[in-house]
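Quick illustration, no need to memorize.
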Amino acid sequence: MTTILSIKDLRKTYDDGFEALKGVSLDIRQGEILALLGPNGAGKTTLISTICGITTPTSGTVTVGGHDIQADFRAARRMIGLVPQEIALEPFEKVWNTVRFSRGLFGLGHDSARIEEILRKLSLWDKRKNAIKELSGGMKRRVLIAKALAHEPRVLFLDEPTAGVDVELRKDMWAIVDELKAAGVTIILTTHYIEEAEAIADRVGVIDKGELLLVQDKKTLMAQMGKKQIEVMLTCTIPSIPDSLAHHNLVLNGQGDALIYTYDTNAERTGITTLLNDVAEAGLILRDVQTRQSSLEEIFVTLVSGDAA
């Protein structure tokens, strides 16, 4: 797959000595959805701002479609759409003009049909004649998305696009993401809603303290780092785990009627058969057995906490 965005040893150090980015390197493929996860202050927004030309890097290089973001700024920026976290719109301007102006900034001619298509997709058509100040917070967020799409970018950055917005907008947003991906648009998403990244991303990147800890195919990541748990539900409650089962490193649930066993999906042997035999020998009767896979959120917490093997 063709690389459309290439980041090499990108660094950003502020005047007070704070290192926001510490040698980030990353190649992003054309047409993929990359979810960038990280705690507050990890460097996600700084990375996006630098790529989009809002922040000047201290060192390193970034190319978009082969265009260097500093040496060939205009061509690089023309390929990028950005939906920022902050809502910064001219309050007295009308929705239609706001979106149309964004298209003109990139040297594209007026295209009423294209603008209408975007506004309709984002449920903004009925608001096209309204001033920005008359819109709700969710509607203003929709306008930001419309502005980012107006010049038909090949790379779209979504910086916490659904933070604090209604469920309807989220559904609209992800429907548009699916359409854009189908059209070959590359999407880089930062989000605190990890379930969204788990649902739509092709690859997941984890950044913390300005360093890119990992970039991995989502399914491969979950297979490599995911743990499975088996919950052995009992027909009665017990006060504690019997001594004969202590070597299985079990956890007793809060109600005292289930034993929770965690195992590595990549291990040669899971130990489940031995566990179930030992449970029976301990005189405990099984009511049911359930399993569950670790979520992306749990994997993320493990990586950031430094507990990953």
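The two ends are 30 Å apart (CA to CA).
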